[in-house]
Design brief:
Layout: H1 2-12, H2 26-35, E1 42-47, E2 50-56, H3 61-72
Antiparallel strand pairs: 1-2
Length: 74
């Protein structure tokens, strides 16, 4: 998934911020627990500082882009 996310990151850099964390680290483990992550990858989409959507597990670049478009729509 990392190459897919990096590609989207380049295309969407002017509209959204991408953050990544590793669940194997102390801080990453705490975040995973806070969000109730059961499976990875786990995507969290925010709009106006609130969780707007999530995706659990692998997905396609097209699906990620679709969600980005929906969330960034006015």
């Amino acid at each position: 998934m990392q190459p897919v996310v990096h590609g989207l990151e380049k295309d969407w850099a002017s509209k959204v911020t991408f953050l990544n964390f590793n669940t194997d680290t102390d801080d990453g483990g705490k975040l995973a627990q806070e969000f109730g992550v059961q499976s990875i990858p786990y995507f969290v989409f925010y709009k106006n500082k609130k969780v707007a959507d999530t995706i659990t597990g692998g997905t396609s670049a097209g699906e990620l882009e679709k969600r980005l478009k929906e969330i960034t729509a006015p």
